[in-house]
Design a protein that fits this description.
alpha/beta, Urease, subunit C, domain 1, 2 domains, eight-stranded mixed β-sheet, 12 helices, 16 strands
């Protein structure tokens, strides 16, 4: 179409200033929001961490122990006094930790880290695709390795993440990444962790919308919910039918959306289902299990009320945060704080995410600290952001604990990582030592220098 001519007016000085400011923001925004630190250098020789307090997660705590790694994999975790058997003709780098603590890298299990940078700049937000059903979308492809939020999270021990697309009924497929790499392919641990489904919730007590020109707007909330759920179920049925046809006749044309759901249909990958309300969780689990799928509940606010069903079908939960208020007037004030302890007591498999914006992934340890303070066993709490998180995301064979053969993705800290004053002193991702500087540390040093320049100490 040809645009109609419009009358032009001479911009006022104020309008011109605004236009200039907007142009400068557009031009400089991406540069400001870019991580300028170099990526970690390849590991040249074995690295030995000795005299350490090693929190293996899977095999207890080793006091005064030694951990060594080479070629990105852990070579051994040794008790105090034992000598590592290093490869011949190597010159290991030995670091005496003097009793400092070594943990496997924390895993932020549900986040959009790397998929968005500045919410008001559309070009830097890549969390969703156009359309309700886009299972072919892969989150890792859109990850920005130079996001400024990544080094911030890394400095607090978060070294891996489950990155989720959002928007639409089937938003795409989640990916598991480690938080260092020149490209998103370098960062990927598991590019296709499974499809992400937004299971429609029933709107209890809602009134139907006023009639308008479209049939859908005349539907009651329950009708819209049923229609949405049936559309999701139909997408998986059609993918299964396509797979059967393709198996019987390899000449059947490729359908990228059906093909994207094949691992889930075969049971090779889980289906991550976003659900919080009790009825929503129950109906999602019953649908998924009846369709021979492997559901993982993401959100899980009412998961404790559905404990029997979740336990019966062995459905894990990614709990979206602890720092939240109760949603019901008759709930105790600490309902969210005690939820992890109650899930553990009910025998459910769960992990803890922040349930917050991507820029607050650094606060993941403090969600766990709150859960510990409200009854969650400490060892179970550590596992909730390490081994259990990695296992639920499908990468427990590589991440989440300190054991021979696993990725050397770990960090060293000078105290309890769930305390605010604890600092991460070293971090390694696949054996490469990463730079722990970030935008926040650089700003802190900048203004400390100003204070010193003015005569402060």
């Amino acid at each position: 179409m040809t645009a109609l001519p419009t009358k032009r007016t001479r911009p006022t000085k104020t309008n011109g200033s605004r236009e200039l400011a907007a142009a400068l923001f557009i031009l400089t925004g991406p540069a400001i929001a870019q991580d300028l630190l170099p990526k970690a250098a390849p590991e040249a020789e074995p690295i030995v961490l000795q005299n350490a307090t090693i929190h293996t997660v899977s095999d207890g705590i080793v006091l005064g122990g030694t951990l060594w790694f080479h070629d990105g994999r852990i070579g051994g975790v040794l008790a105090k006094g034992e000598t590592p058997s290093l490869p011949e003709n190597t010159n290991p780098k030995v670091i005496d930790l003097q009793g400092a603590h070594v943990y496997p890298g924390f895993v932020s299990a549900h986040t959009t880290l790397g998929l968005q940078e500045i919410g008001m700049v559309r070009q830097s937000v890549d969390v969703n695709e156009i359309g309700e059903f886009t299972p072919e979308v892969l989150a890792s492809v859109a990850v920005n390795p130079d996001s400024t939020a990544i080094p911030v999270a890394r400095s607090n021990g978060i070294l891996a993440a489950g990155v989720f697309p959002s928007g639409g009924a089937i938003a795409g497929r989640a990916s598991v990444i480690q938080l260092d790499g020149w490209t998103n392919a370098d960062m990927a641990v598991l590019a296709d962790a499974g499809p992400v489904v937004a299971w429609p919730a029933r709107s209890f007590g809602s009134r139907p919308r006023r009639p308008s020109s479209t049939d859908r707007s005349r539907q009651s909330p329950d009708e819209r919910t049923r229609e949405g759920r049936e559309a999701i179920a139909r997408a998986f049925r059609e993918a299964r039918a396509w797979l059967d046809a393709r198996t019987a006749d390899p000449s059947t044309p490729i359908d990228i959306r059906h093909r994207a759901l094949v691992p889930a249909v075969r049971g090779e990958a889980p289906v991550f289902v976003r659900a919080n309300e009790l009825e929503q969780i129950e109906s999602a689990v019953l649908w998924a299990t009846a369709a021979s799928l492997r559901p993982v509940i993401v959100g899980g606010r009412d998961a404790i009320a559905a404990a029997d069903l979740l336990r019966e079908h062995k459905v894990p939960v990614i709990l979206d945060g602890v720092h939240d208020l109760p949603r019901r007037e008759d709930s105790p004030y600490d309902a969210r704080f005690t939820l992890p302890a109650r899930l553990a007591a009910a025998g459910l498999d769960f992990c803890i995410a922040t349930g917050d914006g991507y820029s607050n992934d650094r606060n993941l340890p403090y969600h766990v600290a709150t859960a510990i303070a409200h009854g969650l066993d400490r060892n179970r709490a550590v596992a909730a952001i390490t081994l259990h998180a990695a296992t639920i995301l499908g990468v427990g064979n590589r991440l989440g604990s300190l054991a021979k053969g696993k990725d050397a993705t770990l960090f060293v800290c000078n105290g309890d990582p769930f305390e605010l004053d604890t600092r991460t002193t070293h971090a390694f991702i696949r054996g490469r030592q990463v730079d722990l500087r970030n935008k926040q540390t650089e700003l802190a040093e900048k203004y400390r220098k100003r204070y010193r320049d003015l005569g402060g100490k």
